[in-house]
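Suppose a colleague, Dr. K., hands you the sequence of a protein chain of 139 amino acids and asks what its three-dimensional shape might be. Before reaching for any lab equipment, you can write down a predicted structure in token form. Begin with the sequence itself:
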Amino acid sequence: MTTAADIMHPGAQWIPAHETLDRAAELMARLNVGALPISDSEERLCGIITDRDIVVNCVAKGLDPAKMTCGDMAKGTPRWIDAGADVSAVLDEMESHQIKRLPVIKDKKLVGMISEADLAQHLSEDQLAGFVEKVYARH
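The predicted structure, expressed as tokens, is then:
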């Protein structure tokens, strides 16, 4: 059985909710990633911030990324998957919520992220096509 831990990109890093968006952008650049899980004060997942969120929901609206926090951008219920979950559960979670990145948690700690690139390396062409169709479908 292929698990979330088998296909994830290990070494994901939290950004605390109190950190500003400019700090998030700096960390994304340093880590060469487009998204960071946001943690609350107890290192629990409270959202995900993407580079697109920073541009569209802050900069394009004339807001100051040095004053807005990651917590300001955390909306909705964050989705995640257990490291031991089967890859079919990963696909179900990502497809049903139309998300492109999924934090992987083990023993209540962040251990990795699964992105489209990770799926592309581990899925069959048919599985990948099904994923793309479901995630990018307009509702």
